[in-house]
From TrEMBL:
Signal peptide: 1-20
Superkingdom per UniProt: Bacteria
Pfam families (UniProt xref): OMP_b-brl
Protein name: Outer membrane protein beta-barrel domain-containing protein
InterPro entries found in the cross-reference section: Beta-barrel_OMP (IPR027385)
Amino acid sequence: MKKVVLFIALGLGMVQLSQAQSSEKPGGFGVRGGASLFNFSGDDVSENDYTNRVGFHVGGYTMLFMTDRLALEPGVYYSVKGTQNDDFADSRAILGYVDVPVLFRLYPAEGFNIFAGPQISFLLNSKFEGDFFGNTISYDSDAIKETDFGVAMGVGYNLPKGFNVQASYDLGLTPIFKDSDADVYNRGFKLSAGYTF
């Protein structure tokens, strides 16, 4: 995992350096965070089995404008995903990932943007919990795959003085369970606020 984090940091540094040397519209480094609403989804998931679970995400990004209206934005975020089950134990899955999206942002109008791009997520921890007779029972699980591939997409708006807001959807494309043929994916919404320096 240390090698993965080092690789990501080096990649962001190279993008930032190339951005500083670019004659195109300048971008910048920024921070972003907010609330997440995730669930398990797929052909093998019944709508009655799970409900959305609230989590959070926080991290940073760097932006390289390739034209006046098109920008490349790689980022690194810690993101808490999972699901909730409204059973007698109020059982839940809590999954912590490092998300690495590489987004293409299109600015069709001043301030407003739409974006999409691939995302790879590295599992940091996975925990399953349940409440029994007033006590929370928790255990770490190794049933979740270490990597998760997907697509991130959404809409954003740049506010004055470097602030921005966005709403996005993470579409997981690879089944998350090891040693299983079950069609179960991480999918959910993110509401974010950010600041570009």
